[in-house]
Amino acid sequence: MSLLDSYDDELFTDELDGDEDGYRDDPATFRLTDVLRQTLREDYADASDEELDDALDDMAAAMSPAEAFNFAGALSQIGKSAGQLLSDPAVASVVRSVAPVAGGALGTVIGGPVGTALGTQLGTIAAGALPVRPAPRPAVPPMVAPQIAADPVAAPVATAVAPGAASPVAGGSPAAAQALVLANQRELLQALLSAALGQHGRQSIGGIPVAKLLGTFSQIVGEAAADADELHYLQNGGDDESVADEDTAQAVYTSLVDADHLELAETLDQDGWD
After folding, report:
1. For the chain, domain boundaries
2. d(CA 189, CA 71)
3. pTM of full prediction above 0.85
């Protein structure tokens, strides 16, 4: 049994809205093949579930096991509805802790708490709720006789500025928070899948061109990377050089997938998979 087969055995329920991507008005039970069907061009609308299953298997066969596992996970995320995500107690707890979404309250989200939090300092917000270990008391400096400058007007006044205090991202990167939210949007995942399918994928998702969706995400992630590079510089006292170009993107991708592969192999071995 392949990894995609194990995902494909799980049924997902989704509220589909009857748009150009083949969604329906009523909740429908579907599998990973339906996610693929909704992402392929309309030319493939007549493909059977068995043919789509074969296509998924062929795609997975071109990947490493770790890549196939994460690929299937992304497809399953596309297929999950808000109701299914709320079945996770951790997710439900977070949602219940914020403003209610029932009774038309959704109209207050734009420019409301969500926009405010993502536009400010998530790190500062988190730190305000956490206990801080008291810093060691600095040693008392020795007494030094005051020095009188020859020209009091021209004498500079030394001011100590804490590292990172003047940086707008010292308390957190708004771009990184926005990227984190977008990375879990079904539309973005489906746009990535569509682009991965090349000319066989849809050109728009939910009425938004795939290129625009991915371009928006690329811009926000680029801003988040620049913020992270600045934070690295600030936290190391300005002594370290930028790490943004230290490794190639492909090398980082390979190391992450290799780590997933090892973890996956250990897990499957412990569970007695053949």
Report:
1. 1-88, 168-243, 245-274
2. 10
3. no
